[in-house]
Design a protein that fits this description.
binds FE2/S2 (inorganic) cluster, DNA polymerase, domain 1, Ubiquitin-like (UB roll), five-stranded mixed sheet, 30% helix, 187 residues
């Protein structure tokens, strides 16, 4: 057995520690050591996107990263989307309302990729959503309802932003949507 390395990672806003072999994947670290089985493992070679999580706000294939590579980094998994573990994140609510899942295997990766997409582009076109999700494969839905859900989440965000008129700050250009919230930021 290889020597174990101690790593400290912020996972869904909580500081966590683990002792891992250098070859342990981030996906296995999250699922087996942290008990966060919402991160799904499909192909295990970077194709399907089921294992997508955010590291420092950027989507990564957790099957392709070693756990030691996220030492001292910030990881968001699907378990961190809900602000309180009960209330659905707006994206989760939109997926629910628009029937954007069947077996659900791809859903955690779809949600986290969508979160990054809407954070960077809060009002995407359908084509931009399709392009943004192109790295995540779904065997069940045909993608139509997933795209609808992401567009609906963006619309909901735009509507809530417009009712909060006057909340634009010096950093927000006129008419710009506030950044799409992640995880506990919506609490
Ligand atoms: S399991 Fe990581 S990309 Fe498929
Ligand atoms: S809902 Fe089954 S793989 Fe996407």
């Amino acid at each position: 057995m290889s020597e174990l390395t101690t790593i400290s990672v912020t996972v869904n806003g909580e500081p966590r520690e683990g002792r891992v072999e250098p070859r342990r994947s981030l996906a296995d670290f999250l699922r087996q050591d942290m008990g966060l089985t919402g991160t799904h493992v499909g192909c295990e070679h970077g194709v399907c996107g089921a294992c997508t999580v955010l590291v420092n706000g950027r989507s990564v294939r957790s099957c392709l990263l070693f756990a030691v590579q996220v030492n001292q980094q910030d990881v968001l998994t699907v378990e961190g989307l809900s602000p309180d573990g009960v209330t659905l994140h707006p994206l989760q609510q939109a997926f629910h309302e628009h029937h954007a899942l069947q077996c659900g295997f791809c859903t955690p990766g779809m949600l986290l990729t969508s979160l990054e997409l809407l954070r960077d582009n809060p009002a995407p076109t359908e084509a931009e959503v399709r392009l943004g999700l192109a790295g995540n494969l779904c065997m069940c839905t045909g993608y139509v309802n997933i795209v609808r859900a992401v567009l609906a989440a963006a619309d909901g965000h735009a509507a809530s932003a417009s009712t909060a008129a006057g909340s634009e700050t010096a950093e927000s250009p006129p008419g710009a949507l506030p950044r799409f919230p992640t995880g506990k930021e919506i609490a």
